[in-house]
Amino acid sequence: MAGFILRRLAQAIFAVLAVTLLVSFAIRLTGDPALMLTQGAGSITEADLVRIREALGVNRPFFVQYLEFLRGIVTFDLGRSFLGGTPVSQLIGTALPATLALAFWSMFVSIVLSIPLGIKAATSRGGWIDQTIRIVSLVGLSFPNFWLAIMFVLIFSITFNLLPPSGLSGASSYIMPAMTMGIIMTAVNVRLVRTTMLETLNSQYIMVARAKGLSETKVLYKHALRNCAIPIVTYLGVQFGGLLGGIVVVERVFNWPGLGTLAFDAVGGRDYPVLQATIFVLSLMIIGVNLLVDIAYGLIDPRIRTE
Amino acid sequence: MASIKLGMTSTFMALALAGVAFGAAPASAAGKVTVSIATDPGSWDPVDTFLVAWGSVGSNIFDGLTSRDTNAKIGPGLATSWEVLDNGLRVRFALREGVKFHNGEAFNADAVKYTFDRLLGEEGAKGPQRANYTSIDRVEVIDEKTVDFHLKAADPVLITKLAGYGAMIVPPQYIKEKGEDYFNAHPVGTGPFSFVAYNAKIDLQLKANPDYWGGAAKISELDYRFISEPATAVAELQAGRVDLVIDLPISLIPVVEGDSKLAVESTTGPVVNGLRFNTKDGITKDERVRKALIMAVDRATIIQSLLGGQATEIASFQSALSFGDDPSLKPLPYDPAKAKALLAEAGVKPGTPVQIDIRSGNPTFNEVSQAIAAYLQTVGINATVKPYETNVFLNDIVPQGKTGAMFQQSWGGWTLDYDNTAYLLYHSGQKWNPYDADPKLDTMLEEQRPMTDVGQREKLLQGIAGYIADKALEMPLYNLNAIYGVNKRVKDFVAAPDNRVKLNEVSVAE
After folding, report:
1. Quick one: how far is CA B147 from the chain centroid?
2. Do the Cβ atoms of B46 and B167 come closer than 8 Å?
3. Angle at B396 between CA B392 and CA B402, to 5 degrees
4. What is the mean pLDDT of residues A216-245?
5. CA A179 to CA A160: how far, in whole Å?
6. B12-25: per-residue pLDDT in tens?
7. Residues B359, B365: contact at Cβ < 8 Å?
8. CB contact under 8 A, A91 and B201
9. B40 in A contact zone (CB under 8 Å)
10. Beta pairing, strands B311-313 & B474-487
11. DSSP state of B131
12. pLDDT confidence bin for A306, thresholds 50/70/90
């Protein structure tokens, strides 16, 4: 088992390194941060640009810069933003909790909506309720998240002035962004819950439970749901990674001060240190969650370890 | 029981104290204004950035030796007067008396010297600002309230540049004691508002400086929120959580106009847009073709229909506010028949392809260029629009001369002096001039720079603009207004051309 964990861990570290290396390299192909910084400046000469590049440290070879970034990770010093010089760790320190909190509440919305709806669809299989839920979730799947976000803002902020249209200022700020992300995820999750539930309901032990005369609610929520939980929870774990990726757009629409906004601004400003650090943190989380799922599986099912 | 009692007593005391604090607030300065700006410059140190967003905020925290009013005219700031001496190689400034920085430190000649030593020294070398002030050799303290600027070469734009960005005067003691990093995030200046709190990427909070030399602000608090998505900023404006949106995009004007609580305020801005030609190769090498393409496009209609009238036609790459603008210079008229004739004369066959390169991400200019392409079709030119990612376009396509026959040029020109535009756009070897090498133009551009006679210099600049128009080096399009979305509860707001909106005169109706 220890061997399996070590192997998976090595793979995860390699994946994180590969992602950061690629992103660091790619962003350097897209433009010179010194030129970005001086865009509005009047009489910039080549000598000025050379000086600024030197001050930013981008005049050195790529691998030197990348190794420095890796050293920064080990020494917990991620450098400073090119745009103004705020320490990157400070920027990540405020953005990461904001993103995690949004991701958590989005998951929460999705779970609260998709489990009862999925079960309802499964139990009324083929009926009009099932059809409606399936059609609505299909429509939900096809929604672009920014469109849903804009609709929410139009309705709840502008027309009824109930919720703040953007920013993070108190609990009410969470409602619209979490609903946007949550509803999009629900569309997928409802189908998953429905399918898993159908499979479970056909299994023998459910028939036994019913034969024993248990109430239908007890059968569903106590016996069936518990057994469906394994694939659903696994999928939610994987979905969490996707959620972090998809959060960029939603964060931008709601001006959410999270990692997505940070990454977006960093790309626009060619802010290498901030982008590298943001991608590092995001990949660490996504790959980390997958690693945990893998290890948990390995613990449960010995066949996976020897694969 | 005793502890509950104690708790209650202290609560009452706190409430009473709070009451006293509120009661003590001056009645004349009340109310908060919240402003949305698109980007967080990341540092409030004047030497660190060139973002217009910095200028919007910085103008309320700091002052320069000179200042620019809402009509973009230069006047006294922390200097009350100045004299240009030694053929423009020395400028003597008389400094304002009795001015203090927000931390109580006195503003004097030493502060001016420190500011420019810092800008031209090691700290300034790390940022983009220094390049604009390299004509300054050194600053000499004559006495407590007088300084001399010794220049390496006469710089006609210097007085204008002293009103903004890197030239803002900073407090020497404060920076020396607290350090550069602390100053970045906790700015101290002499301006109408002083620093309260800064949350990177979220907001910046300021409060009125009661001792401001220009008169205390009429509002007590001024908050800036960083909102990068314009639609989100407008949603905040509609929801009443933001009072002022700087740089309102044209596409969102109808939304603001449609809300009875809000208003659109606009004024002539410094930003000009046009298309430049590849004058080196292809059909646009021929001056007649360039003129024909200009005449084929109805710019007035584009302004009215696509830009909501929020722009004016230009004849050269500058706005009416710019020093060097010649009101008598007129753009070539819209004349498709003449355009066709010129194209035929130049031997351009109908259906000849032309590529227009633009920056992506600006929906307004995207529409404008589509319209231009359509106009060109009507004279038999098969124009296609090719959008590039902005940074690729600015860093690779234009400077390397890899553009199509025509390419977008948008120019801000914060100094509002044509030299700053023309030199970089037309002088041989400049980054923004990939195609032309015209010794005559180079001489004209070099000649005006050291000139101290303002009238003569203006004539030369106008001559340069006329020369470029004659050669049809570009298709001048329009000068975009500076547009703001404002909540009507804000009184006495005057739109600033350059987004450097000073808010000490506005008040709010609660």
Report:
1. 28
2. yes
3. 115
4. 80
5. 17
6. 344 333 333 333 33
7. yes
8. yes
9. yes
10. antiparallel
11. G
12. low
Q: What is the mean pLDDT of chain A?
A: 87
A34: chain B residues, CB-CB within 8 Å:
128
pLDDT at A284 over 80: yes
Contact A265 B49 (CB under 8 A): no
| Strand ranges, E, within B51-157 | 66-68, 74-76, 79-85, 90-95, 136-143, 146-151
**Closest-CA residue in chain B for A161?**
B239
CB atoms near residue B402 (< 10 Å): 14
Nearest of A59, A66, A1, A7 to residue A32 by alpha carbon: A59
| Of A248, A290, A266, A243, nearest in space to A26 by CA | A266
Q: How far, in Å, CA of A293 to CA of A306, rounded?
A: 16
Taking a C-beta distance cutoff of 8 angstroms, is the pair A184, A140 a contact? yes
Contact B54, B71 (CB under 8 A): no
Reduced to 3 states (helix: H, G, I; strand: E, B; else coil), residue B462 is helix
Q: Which residues 462-491 on chain B approach chain A with CB closer than 8 angstroms?
A: none
Read off the amino acid at residue B232: T
Structure tokens at B46: 């004047």
> What are the tens digits of pLDDT across the range B197-249?
999 999 999 999 999 999 999 999 999 999 988 999 999 999 999 999 999 99
Question: Distance between CA atoms of B294 and B471, rounded to whole angstroms?
Answer: 12
Please enumerate in sequence order all residues whose Cβ is within 8 A of that of B494, keeping only pairs 6 or more positions apart, or say none.
B70, B265, B505
| Identity of residue B341 | A
pLDDT < 70 stretches in chain B = 1-29, 510
Quick check: B152 contacting A, CB < 8 Å? Answer: no
- Residue linked to tokens 């009047």: A42
| Cross-strand partners of B411 | B272
B229 with A44: Cβ contact below 8 A: no
Give the gap in angstroms from C-alpha A290 to the nearest C-alpha of chain B.
Answer: 30
- Pick from A30, A34, A261: which is nearest to B201 by CB? A261
**Residue A303, burial from CB neighbour count under 10 angstroms (0-12, 13-18, 19+):** exposed
Across chain B, how many H-helices and E-strands are there? 17, 19
First to last CA, chain A: 12
* CA angle, residues A62, A64, A69, in degrees to nearest 5: 95
Strands B244-246 and B311-313, sheet pairing: unpaired
Nearest CA in chain A to B241: A164
In B40-101, DSSP assigns E strands to: 66-68, 74-76, 79-85, 90-95
Closest Cα to residue B135, out of B159, B111, B108?
A: B159
CB–CB of B394 and A83 under 8 A?
no
Q: Please answer whether residues B93 and B113 qualify as being in contact, where contact means their C-beta atoms are separated by less than 8 angstroms.
A: no
Measured between beta carbons, the chain B residues lying within 8 angstroms of A37 are 49-50, 127-128
Query: Scanning the structure block, which residue is given the tokens 């919720």?
Result: A163
Looking at the complex, does the CB of residue B429 fall below 8 Å from at least one CB of chain A? no
The complex's ipTM works out to 0.85
Pairing of strands B32-37, B221-226: parallel
Q: DSSP string of B273-334?
A: EEEEE--SSSGGGSHHHHHHHHHT--HHHHHHHHSTT-EEE-SSSS-TTSBT--TT--PPP-
User: Can you say whether residue B157 is alpha, beta or left, with left for phi > 0 and alpha for psi between -120 and 50 degrees?
Assistant: alpha
Contact A149, A255 (CB under 8 A): no
Give B230-285 as a DSSP string. HHHHHHHHHTTS-SEEES--GGGHHHHHT-TTEEEEEEEEEEEEEEEE--SSSGGG
Q: How far is A107 from chain B (nearest CA, A)?
A: 24
Of A73, A70, A33, the C-alpha closest to A49 is A33
Give me the residue from B40, B48, B395 closest to A35, CB to CB.
B395
Sign of torsion over alpha carbons B429, B434, B437, B442? negative
CA-nearest of B504, B495, B71 to B244 is B495
